[in-house]
Specification:
The complex is a heterodimer of chains A (324) and B (353). Chain A is mainly α and 324 residues long. In chain A, 68% of the residues lie in helices and 1% in strands. Chain A has one domain: MetI-like fold (Orthogonal Bundle). Chain B is mainly alpha-helical and 353 residues long. In chain B, 76% of the residues lie in helices and 0% in strands. In chain B, helix 7 runs parallel beside helix 10. The chains are: A mainly alpha (324), B mainly alpha (353). Chains A and B meet through helix 2, helix 3, helix 4, helix 5 and helix 6 of A and helix 5, helix 7, helix 8, helix 9 and helix 10 of B.
Amino acid sequence: MTTLINPEAPVGAPLGKSSRPRDALFAGISRGSGIVVLIVMGAIGVFLLWKALPALNANTASFLTTSAWFPDDAQPKFGIAALAFGTLLSSVIAMVIAVPVGIGVALYTAHYAPRRFAPPLGYIVDLLAAVPSIIFGLWGLQILMPNSIGLWRWLDDHFGFIPLFSNEQNIYTRSIALAAVVLAIMILPTVSAISREVFAQVPPGHIEAALALGATRWETMRTAVFPFARPGMVSAAMLGLGRALGETIAVALILSATFKINWQVTEPGGNTFAANIALKWNEAGTIGLGALIASGLVLYVITFAVNMAARLVVERRRDFSGAN
Amino acid sequence: MAILDRTISDDELHNLLSQRKLPRWTTLTTSATAIAGSALLSFFSPVSGVAGTAVFAFLLFIVLQTGLSFAVEGKRYAIDRLATTLLLSALITALVPLVSTLLTVTIRGLNAFNATFLTSTMRNVSPRSPGGGILHALIGTLEQVAIAAAIGVPLGILAAVYLVEYGNRSRLARAISFFVDVMTGIPSIVAGLFVYTGFILALGLQRSGLAAGISLSILMIPVVVRSTEEMLRLVPRDLREASYALGVPKYRTILRVVIPSASTGIITGAMLAVARVTGETAPLLLTTFFTQSINVNPFNGPQASLPTYVWDQIGSGTTASIDRAWAGALTLILLVMILNLSARLIARASRVK
C-alpha cells in the first residue's frame, strides 16, 4: 500500500528508492539538521568532561564533599558541596513559592477568568518570561532587596526559633532567600504556562459532568480537572525546578558569594553552580577554569536529568512543551 | 421533594434556588470591613507599614468571607469561595513583580536614557562620571543575535521539517523530538561553557561575537524547532497531496507549498526565539566578555552587548553607573518587548485569515 501513495516514487521510476537526487539531498539535509540536536546534546557532555578532567585530576580534595574553592592554589583544593547545597536550597525555596502561585494563576486563567479576559491575562503572565534575567537581577538588587528587609527581619523576630529563618548576623541582604524569591518570579511563567496548557485540555465533558452533578466550581476542579492534569502539573513544577537550578545572572548579582553550607537562608552568603561560574570565570587560572567547567558539567547532568524526568512524565501527552 | 408535588411559579423557584446564598454586595462590604479593621489595627502594635496592613487586610477578608459563607451557605460553598479568592490572589501576586519591574525600569531608566546615550560609547568614560552610552553594546547585541539567528533559525526549521515531513515517528524522529524538549531546559551558562570548551579551547576560535552568537544559537534551536513543528503540523494534508498529484517533487512541495503556508507561524516562532536569547547574559560573559568601545567585527576580539553592559555597570556600583545600568536595562527591555509584541501581532494577524 505504501508504494501507492509514496510521493517520492514518480511514475515509471523504480519503486522504493528515490530517483530524484535533489529530493534525496533535501531529505538528507533536514535529517542532518535534526541529528545536529542530538550531537549538540552529546557534545556538551563530552567537551565539558574532557576539559574538566585535568582539573579534577589535579584536585587534592574530594570533588563531591568539599565546600572550599581554591582551584588555583599550588595544591588545588575544590569541591561542589556548598555549590550543590546553595543551588538546591534556593531552587527548592523558589519552587515552594512559584508552584502554588503558578498553578493558581494557570487555573484562574483557564477556568475562572471571564472568557474575554483569559487570553490577555495569560499573555501578561507570559510577559514575565520575556523579561531578561539581568533585569530581574538589577530589580532584585535595587528594589526588592531594600524593600524586603522588613519581611526577613519580621521572620527572624517571630519565627527565629525555626533554624531556617533565624539570622545571627542581623544583616538581611544578599541572602539565599532573596535570590530564591527572584528565582520564583523567573520560573513562575514556566510553571503557569505549562499548567495552563494542561488545564485547557481537560475534556469539557468531564467538567460539565461534575457541574451537572451539582459540584461547586472548586469541587469540579478537584474531581475533574486535577486528576486529568496531574502529570502536567508535576512536569510543570519540574521544568520550573530545572530553570531555577540553572539560572545564573540574577543569582550572581544578588548573592554575596560564600562557600559555606548555611541553613540560615536570610543571612548574606551562599552560592550556586551557575552563579559561581559567572562570578569566578574571569579571575580563574587554568585549573580554575577546569574546576568551573567541572562544576558546570555537574549542573548539566542535574538539569538534564530533571528535564528528562519532567518530559517523561508527560510523554504520553506530547503537546506540552516549554518552547511554545 | 416538595417541588415535584406541585407546579411552582418562577418567583418561587428563584427563591428556592437563591436561598441560603450571600447577596452580591457581601464581597464589597466584607473587603471594606477588612481594610478598615486592618487600618485600625495598624495604630496598635502587631501590624505595621503599608505592606503589613495590606497583608493583614487580605487575611482578615479571607477569614470574614469564609466565616460568613460558612454560616450562611454551608461548608461546600465556603470552601468554594475561599478557593476562588486564593486563585485570584495568586494572579495578583504574579502581576506585582511584573508591574514593579516594568515600572522601575521605565522610571529609573529614563534618568540616563536619551539620544546621546543611544549614540555614544563608554570609551574614555570613567565609572564615576555621568554620560557615556550604549551604542557599542547595541551594535554588539544586534550582530550577535543576527549570527545566532543565521545559525539557529535554518537549523531549527530544517530539523522541524525532518520531524514532520520525513520522520514519520521513526525512532530517530522520536529521539530528536524528545531531546529538543530536554534542550529547552539547558541552562544558558552551560551553552556558554560548551562553546568555550568545544569552539574556543578545542578549535582555537577567539573569544568574539561569533562565539557568543554560536552559544545563543544553541539556546534558540529548540524554540525554533518546536514552534515550526507545530505550524507545519497545521498545514492540511490535502495541500501536500494536491502538489504531489501535480507531479511536484517532495522537496519542492515542502519549500513551495508547506513552508509558505506556515510562514507567519514560523516567523513568529523565530522572532520569539530571537527575543528569548537577546536578553541572555551568562553565555556572553564566557564567550566574548565585553569592551567599552565599538567593535564592529564579530569575528575578532571581545564585543560588548546590552546584557553584559548592564552587568558591567552594576558591577561598577557608582551612582552614575547604576543610572546607566537602568538605562541599559530599559534599552534591552524595549528591544525584547518590541520583538515579542511584533511576533504576537504577526501571529494574531495570521490567525484571522
